[in-house]
Amino acid sequence: MVWIVIIVIIALVVFGYIALYNGLQTAKVYTEESWSQIDVQLKRRNDLIPNLVETTKGYAKHERETFAKVVELRNQMVQLPADAHEEKMELSNQLSSSLKSIFALAESYPDLKANQEFTRLMEELSNTENKIAYSRQLFNSSAASFNQKLMTFPSNFVAKIHGLTKVNYLEVPSEEKAAPKVSFE
Questions:
Q1: Is the whole-model pTM more than 0.70?
Q2: Within 13 Å and on the Cβ side, how many CA atoms surround 2?
Q3: Cis ω before 154 (30° cut-off from 0)
């Protein structure tokens, strides 16, 4: 009778350990998948940029510096290794800021604003920027769930045994956190 109780206790411990490990692995996979969504959207944006630059530069020849910066940032991002998450997000933030300058060009060039190809590309890029923002939220939610499992008992013991570590959140650059300056002049 005692052996049966011992075997049942051992079985419960083993099944509990397996359940905790599988829960950690599931949370890790969700985090990796959510990063993959960001990567897909970044690639989509990177594919749209050359078309946008080509369409726009005929209208705004003296804006070459802006175009060159956008192309340079895009090329740097494309060359980064797949696992360079933080570097990709930093370049992505810089690229988003540079793209805002191109978006603003439409206001200065009415002919550009009327160009259907430019309008279509702007809509595509705007939708892609929104998808990137959503994907970042999803990543942070997945990372929070994974990190919570790493910090709570008893899964923290299983995580430590298997060398699982905290996933960093994607943060908004400090310059984007600042309130925009408003002028009524």
A1: yes
A2: 0
A3: yes
